[in-house]
Amino acid sequence: MKLPVFPLQENLRIVLSCFLMFSTFTASAQQLGFTLPVTNCPRSQQQANIWYFGDNAGIDFRSGTAISLNDEKVMTAYKSSAVMSDSTGNLLFFTNGKIAWDRNFNEMPGATNLDGDLGVGQPCLIVPIPGDPDQYVIFTIDVLEISPDNSYITKGMNYSKIDMKLNNGMGDVVSKSLNLPLLSPACQKLTGMYDETNKVYWVLSHKWESDEFYAYPVKQDGVGIPVITSAGSIHGGGFTQQANALGYMKFSPDGKRLALAISGSKKVEIFSFNSSTGQVGNSQSYTFAKTGVSPYGIEFSPDNQKLYVSLFQLTGNGAAASPSFICQFDLTAGLINPVYVDSIKSFRISALQLATDGRIYASRTLNLINRQDSIEVIYNPTRPGTDCNFDLLNNFPQSRFSLDSNTSIYSLPNFIQNYFNIPVFTYDSSCIGDITRFHITNKANIDSVVWDFRDGNLSTATEPIHQFSQPGTYWVKLTEKFNGRNFTDSLPVTIHPLPIVHLGDTIFVYSGTTINLHAGGGNMEYTWSNGSPDSIISVTDQGKYWVKIKDHNCCLNSDSVYVKVYQYFLPTAFTPNGDGKNDVFRMIGEYRDIRFNMYIYDRWGQLIFHSENIDDGWDGTCKNSQCPSGTYSWLININFIGQEVQNKGNVVLKGTVILLR
Is the pTM value of this prediction over 0.85? Predict the structure, then answer.
């Protein structure tokens, strides 16, 4: 009987179904008067969303649903490969440890003789250089060829620098940086994580015939001196125990734990990891008693609480006489009492790799020659025991993932493990006043859900929307129900206040004065009505000015202000003849919250009039006598009292006026 798989058409159907459901949901929300702005910072950690591995196999996770890829026809990776995309999910390059290919599937000219070996379990890992999106490092491990006299031949652990600006933007090895030596002899173990606080990647391997871990820091200036820690078992034993070099090593997604398999000793070990110092410690171990199989693949659940181990028959060229096993450790209880979630006859289940869809994938083959065109899936790795649903999707057993006639062999990609530090659910629009949308990362095997937003509101929608009334952190609880059982997770959801911006209502500006409008400092983006991206702009002209700001939580706010330019006017002549028209010489202006002094002088420079009230003008008299027709000089001092007036210093006005009789 042919085992069922989920082909490309089914994956596309699921994607389309989800899209139509969300479109209907969004339309309904809009009909209810909701607007759905997305104002929080978008997730950009998509470096592990494209996989190439095995014999031309590939998977694309960029849509949130795994879709088989058939476009790569150049690589065979018997064991692990390494793939790197940019932060938005665009493929950059990939390698099997021997050759590196660019995004157009052409060989990088200088990267056709890397020192990784295709028979090594984890022969390669690609690591970015922090702070430079064009610089990368390919770490490789060579096979350890041990002779009966316990002598060995190996190139050990090496690294090569890649510059994506080379080779017309397709990337290539930097001159004189191919296969630079690091560690020899090294076991077949290679893993990495990123410490966001200290801006450093840690790349770990293990020395052969030693209990030493070598943690290499990768910083902006390149690969540094390793931190060496002695912890756990000795990986060694010479020719007769060379299988102790085998077995995977993995960081947990949060980077706080490290686990490995020592295949020859049938042992699994787990450690703590200090990402500030690069040190390994607090070892625990478990030795398997099952005959005929050895631990090999290692992977953590996305919530860092479960450890999965694959066990398979290492020896033999035909179908495996002993069945392969997948077991789960609940790390909250320690490295004890594994639960065997399934066994698989004849096939070798080796590599395990967590994906950005929250599922763990497992390579599947009879041997190097008789390969399989599908891989196993642990659909719900955060759930305990057999509820993790190994190859069970919607109650259909043996629901593996189809590779569309391509094969994995013993291979899956090796990644920086932080790329999979993805919560059980995500949310967007996390600013107060927004409608927050919730998304379940892994929708496999869910009959129904209940959301508790921890503010007195519940929802049974799979992808609900909710508006929080106050900023703060809410421990939102998601309960998934499947086959009569409940599985609950709680995560903190932080609703951020809007950034503060206050420009004022109306600003009075005296003519000719330049003023600064300040939107406050420390925000991520500013957009002014005049197109300026700065936090402060200078304005002279009258009009309405607005600014939109975005803070480091990507919350948005805006404000506007009206700048009113004004000036004072005085007539050039007046006729104090008692007809009620232009009888008084006075200053005309809107703004009156001032200190005012006006002085009138005759042609000999004698002061003939003084007023401290803007409304009291000169009526053409001096000491109760009419002044003759002629030209008179005037001087006005204005001192602004009101705080809303923007002006540099006091205003001094001078001029002449003609008195006509």
Answer: no
